[in-house]
Design a protein that fits this description.
Radius of gyration: 17 Å
Structural class: alpha/beta
Bound molecules: adenosine-5'-diphosphate, magnesium ion
Length: 244
């Protein structure tokens, strides 16, 4: 049975997909078999008359994965809204069992399964069921992606606090630059301040790279950036160790 990692963000648009795809591509380059899934996509666009997840497209490319959409993306919804609302408008209800079964299916066949969340931790999938509940049921450790610049301390600390209060293990925090710009005193100090405040390792800071684009399905040099800028000791623990 493979292990998994759940990638959440402090917010939408912080770089969950980029980091999840980067980790998948990096693991693959290390000869680890890796699968990825996006259990719930909202704000999906129609391609050839069919709703498609652009997050999933990048994840599949990163992992060179070919698996049925029912497994890699059980729910693909058009409305750009919280999943519970997007599902209601589409006339369906999100059933967590479908997501958990899909994850088990992949975990049985791949060494690592990378799961990208939707929005942040307290986002509802149905009236009384949030991403936190899903992560607990999947029994997966968490990696938090956060913005690298001003405003990130509060969002990151709240996310860590929420996860830990629910018994979810937080493996690490990855800060990410979604826009070009030079680092100032805030960006330089955020990693240290966040690590001190939360007690969770900040794995590192991923720089902005114009070659990367989720919308245009471009991985650019993300696997190299992951390798170069992050301390991945936690990730290496998840790899099965070969017995002699
Ligand atoms: N390190 C980066 N360099 C360049 N662009 C990035 C980087 N990280 C994220 N982006 C861009 O920022 C936007 C948001 O990133 P995304 O991974 O889609 O966030 P999320 O999955 O959290 O919503 C996308 O347009 C993506 O291409
Ligand atoms: Mg995303």
């Amino acid at each position: 049975m493979g292990r998994g990692i759940f990638i959440t963000g402090t917010d939408t648009g912080v770089g969950k997909t980029v980091i999840a795809a980067g980790l998948a591509a990096y693991l693959k380059s290390q000869a680890i078999t890796v699968a990825a899934m996006k259990p719930v996509q909202t704000g999906a666009k129609k391609v050839n008359g069919r709703l498609e997840s652009e997050d999933l497209r990048l994840l599949l490319r990163a992992a060179s994965l070919e698996e049925p959409l029912e497994i890699t993306n059980p729910y693909c919804l058009e409305l750009p809204a919280a999943p519970s609302l997007a599902a209601r408008v589409a006339g369906i209800k999100i059933d967590p069992r479908r997501i958990i079964e899909a994850h088990h299916n992949l975990a049985a066949r791949y060494q690592v399964v990378i799961v990208e969340g939707a929005g942040g931790l307290m986002v509802p999938l149905s009236d009384n069921y949030t991403l936190v509940d899903l992560i607990k049921q999947l029994k997966l450790p968490l990696v938090i992606v956060a913005r690298a610049n001003l405003g990130t301390i509060n969002h990151t600390a709240l996310t860590v606090s929420c996860a830990q209060s629910q018994g979810i293990r937080v493996e690490g925090i990855i800060l990410n630059h979604t826009q070009a710009g030079n680092d100032g005193i805030v960006e330089e100090n955020n990693p240290r301040i966040i690590q001190q405040l939360t007690g969770v390792p900040v794995c590192g800071v991923i720089p902005y790279s114009a070659d990367i684009s989720v919308e245009e399905t471009r991985l650019g040099n993300i696997a190299d950036l992951i390798d170069k800028h992050l301390n991945l000791s936690w990730l290496k623990k998840l790899w099965p160790v070969k017995q002699k």
